[in-house]
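Hi everyone, sorry if this is the wrong subforum. Our group has a chain we'd like a structural model of before ordering constructs, and none of us has done structure prediction before. Sequence below.
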Amino acid sequence: FQLETEFPDYYNLNYDLSLASVEDIQKKLSQHSDFDKTAFIEYFAGDSAIYTFFISKDDFQVFETPKNEALTGAISTFQNFQNINPGLLKSNDLGSRHFQNYTQSAHFLYQKLLAPVLENSDFEKLIIVPDGNLGYLSFEAFLTEPPISNEINYAASNLDYLIEKYQISYA
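Answer:
Right subforum, don't worry. Here is the predicted structure as tokens:
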């Protein structure tokens, strides 16, 4: 009680459990010109589906992506790739297999988790709030298009990384 009465700002900072509403987020996005072309994308990983909450200054939508073996496998493959020894990414059979696994999972995850949300949009910035295992993914390394060749080449000139199209931040 003493903390609450003597240091109300500190108390509120630590114990205020209020959540931002959709309207609160839209208001913030509308108030600042920096957020004109910004999409706020929050994920909730449920038992049988991943729910995507998309908020822009004048739109709100919810998308449901069924959690199936293909999706959980792609998430696992992409997570494993992020932890791989760079020495294994050379031009050999193992490097080729890793490249193929990476490009397939990176494009698949983009198609399932972001493409439906960003379809026909002109956003420049994405604020991503992941949940569960999605918090371990580097969304900026997703591929918006499949690779143009199977030659091992991680350069941006060969692959369409999400980071090349959007400024990305996480919350």
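For your construct planning: The radius of gyration is 19 Å. The longest strand covers residues 38-45.
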